[in-house]
Amino acid sequence: MTYDLVIGDRAYSSWSLRGWLFFDAFGIPVRTHSARLYTDELPTLLHQYHPARTAPTMRTPEGAVVPETIAIAEELATRHPDTGLWPTDPKARAIARAVSAEMHAGFTSLRSHCPMNLRVSYTDCTPPDAVLADLARLDTIWSWARAETGSTTPWLCGAYSVADAMFAPVATRIATYNLPVTPAAMDYVMAHLAHPSFRRWRAMGMVDGADQDFYRRDYPRRDWPGPKPLPARAIEGTDTENTACPYSGKPVTHALALNGRRFGFCNAFCRDKTAADPEAWPQFMALYQS
């Protein structure tokens, strides 16, 4: 048996991103069940996860329903102590929990003015003073965590941990809205944008349903500041180098083109998530580099 995880739109649901990272970034198997925000899809799906009301919500293999990202993280860390969800060093673990709790409860101005949107990046959003204050607080606690733990990695407390997963959506907000942060804070943001699990989530988010009008803004746009994807594109036909999907092993029904070569997949979503960022997918890259 494995875990089940309810998520919202990948492009927009910041809390869902956190919950999913707890699984993908730490190698814990999970089945995801997605529902579109601002429709009856999510409350309808959550009827099966009583008494949960929000995404993400986890169901354990035994059937226990666990809403809220902090609770999900703690339960997974208890069940999978060797996966590195929290730092093993007591001081680093205490600091990681402290900054995670502040993220869970705070930064409301930033979250309100700059909702997560992984599909665009803007040149400027004219952040008000309250948002600037939140950004200053982020720099304070990020710098404090790194200094106190002596982290020599891109992450807050040594190896990538729950604390970093908690701040992943904040990093995307800084990237999406081109928010003014210190060079050290921007280095941390760029580490998030390059993280393999985040790249997979964003690639899926780019093709996971239509745009949500709630998140639309009229600010001038720029290119996404993260790693530039390889130039793949969806194409018609099934005349491809491979006859089986690199993810499922099922017969090819959809195809993409990349650098003059054609590759096949078992459905449109497999193809489109790959076309969005081929290097995010180890199974595809193994095929591409073979």
UniProtKB/TrEMBL annotation:
Pfam family, one: GST_N_2
Family matches, as CDD domains: GST_C_3
Highest taxon above the source species: Bacteria
Ranges for domain GST N-terminal: 12-78
Listed name of the protein: Glutathione S-transferase
